Amino acid sequence: MALHIVEEAERCLNCKKPLCQKGCPVGTAIPLVIQLFRERRMDEAGAVLFQNNPMSAVCSLICNHGAQCEGHCVRGRKGTPIHFSAIENYVSSTYLERARFEKPQPTGKRAAVIGGGPAGIVAAMRLAQMGVAVTIFDQNPRLGGVMRYGIPEYRLPKRVLDRYQEILETLGVKIRHNTAIGSSLTIPDLFRDGYDTVFVGTGTWRAQTLGVSGEAGGNVLFGLDYLMSPETAEIGERVAVIGAGNTAMDVARTAIRQGANEVTLYARSKHISASSDELEYALLDGAELVQGKAICEINEEGPCLRRPSSTRMTV
Fold this sequence. Notes:
By secondary structure, the protein is of the alpha/beta class. It is built from 13 helices and 9 strands. It has helices at residues 3-11, 19-23, 30-38, 42-52, 56-62, 84-98, 118-129, 146-149, 158-170, 187-192, 223-228, 246-257, 276-285; strands at residues 110-114, 133-137, 174-176, 197-200, 238-242, 262-266, 288-290, 294-299, 302-306.
């Protein structure tokens, strides 16, 4: 157990009105988890996290903690907030490895889950734990959705996602990879073949566009498309990344790892939507940040800049 995690837990004030918990989008019982951790009741702490949010092991790595739990911590008003993300990651990862899941008695009900991303994984897990026979239909060869294909390995190790697949298989969930519902198979086909219910969790695979001239050019890649298979993209030595969210930071850092010598992030305003940690990592890796510039066009040389007007562009 890393000493700094123990020290972080000991710094928690166990507030009567935990603002950290209010800042969490899924209402994680942060004070309770920290207290159980202090008492070395690891299995109980992990169970609290897992029952509230089965994706806790993932969220502990990729959530914007500075704007959520840690950003609301009372300790942060006059100093450094409690780094709950580190505690959560240790506890939830340990729980995933230790926990033993058993296939429950079948109810006779069947459910089809379309999509193997976070929503589909959690839905399938919850249903299977209730005794429902579940089949996941996923268009990709491995489960995880955007978590696997849109987030780099250095941010989210794929072994975490592999563990979720192991749990699903233990619970009796069947998985049909490389199967997109809506082409050869449709939702009516699923009901025809005896499924009682269908859960649709197809994810956020569609890239957000700028709506400017030139973005259909051969020298332009959408961030998500690039992150899915960066090794197949010829990006050159100079890369412009339009946007300032976490995806933009992932693109910039991945491009640097691919050998780009000059990577510049362009933000249309002074506001950076990426977490402060991810921005700092991108800058440490060697990316540069240009703020207060909007993109009006993209040509063979790259983006054409102008100062943003009162009308905001979609980036």
